[in-house]
Amino acid sequence: MPLEFELCPGRMVGGSNPCFIIAEIGQNHQGDIEMAKKMIKMAKDCGADCAKFQKSELEHKFNKLALERPYNSKHSWGATYGDHKRHLEFSHEQYRELQKYAKEVGIFMTASGMDEMAVEFLHELDVPFFKVASCDANNFPYLVATAKKGRPMVVSSGMQSMETMQRVYKTIKEHNPNFCILQCTSAYPLDPENVNLRVIAEFRKKFPDIPLGYSGHERGIYITVAAVGMGAKVVERHVTMDKKLKGNDHEASLEPKELAELVQAIRLVEKSFGSNVKQMMPCEKVCHDKLGKCVVCKTAIPAGTPLTMDMLAVKVGEPKGVPPEEMNQLVGRTLKEDAAEDASLTASMLA
Ligand SMILES: CC(=O)N[C@H](C=O)[C@@H](O)[C@H](O)[C@H](O)COP(=O)(O)O
Ligand SMILES: C=C(OP(=O)(O)O)C(=O)O
C-alpha cells in the first residue's frame, strides 16, 4: 500500500512530497464573509496549500439543550451557544461564494464537516478532501458515511486514545485507502508539555502505510516545524488577522507574518532532509582540504623499515596523506624512501 496519495487535484501528500500546509480559518472570520475572503487571500500569500473552514448544520451537530445552554464566555457572540454558533456559521450560498473566491485566488479550499449533514453539503460543494475534526474521530457512523464518499480524508485525533485511533484506522481503511491521521491535542492555546509529538512515532508503528501529520493549537511555529522533522506530511494551524480578536481560537492562531514564517521554515527543513546516504559531500571539500586529518610520521622513518603504530600520528598534514581510517593497514608496510619526522605519509611513499 503506497505511503502517498493525491489529497487535492495534482497535489500528492506523503512519501517525499512537500508537507501539505492547511491554514485553518475555522471560525476566526468572526462570521464576516469579507474577513473570510481576506483570510483566504492571506493564506495564499503566505504560501499555505489550503484554506479551511468549519461547516456545521447546527441542529445536526448539537442537540436542543446544547444549543440552548448559556454561553457567557468573553468569546461569545450570543446569549446561548446556539446563538453564538449561528453568528459564526456561513450559509451554503456563502460557502459557494468563498469557494469561487478561493478558486480565483488559486488556493485549495475545504472545511471540516462537523456532522453528517455538513459532510453531505461539502460533498455537493465538491471539496478536494474532507477534514474530520477531533470531535468526530470517535463518531464511527460518521466516519463510515464520510469514508464511503470516496474523497481523501484528513483525520484529527484530539481527545482520543490510541485504541480509538486504531479503530478509526481500521474502520476508514475498509472503505477508503486515501487518508491520513494527525496528532492533535484539543486545548486552546496548547502548552508544549501537552503536545506529545512522540505520538507521531507511535502512529508510524501502528499505521505504517498512511501519511501522518499534526494539527497544532500551541503558540508560535517551532513545535509545528518540529512535527515536520518527526515525519508530519500534513500540518494544520489556525490562522488569524489579529490574535487579540474576540474568539476562542485567536490566541492559539498564527498571524500572517507567522504563517509565512512557518511555511518558509517547513520548506527549509524539508530541503535539509536530503539524502540518507552518508558520504563526504562535494561542498565539504573546502573544509576537508583545510582541516581534514591524515597520517604523518611521528618519528623519522628510514626506507624499508616495517611500519608500527608508534611511528605514526594523525594531524592536519600538508600535503594530504593517507586518511586516518586507513592507518591500521599501514602497519607492516615499508617506505620506498626515507621520511622525515612530522612529514605527511602519502600513498606514493609506500613500497
Ligand atoms: C474541537 C473543535 O471543534 N475544535 C475546533 C478546531 O480546532 C475549534 O476551532 C472550535 O470550533 C472552537 O475552539 C470552539 O470555540 P467556541 O466554543 O467559542 O465556538
Ligand atoms: C476541530 C478541528 O480540527 P482539529 O481537531 O484538528 O483541531 C477542525 O478541523 O474543525
From TrEMBL:
Biological process, per Gene Ontology: carbohydrate biosynthetic process; carbohydrate derivative biosynthetic process; N-acetylneuraminate metabolic process
Native source species: Muraenolepis orangiensis (Patagonian moray cod)
Pfam families: NeuB, SAF
Keywords on record: Transferase
Protein name listed in UniProt: N-acetylneuraminate-9-phosphate synthase
Keyword Oxidoreductase: no
Superkingdom field: Eukaryota
InterPro entries: AFP_Neu5c_C_sf, Aldolase_TIM, PseI-like, PseI/NeuA/B-like_N, SAF, SAF_AFP_Neu5Ac, SAF_PseI/NeuA/NeuB
Assigned EC number: 2.5.1.57
Enzymatic class: transferase
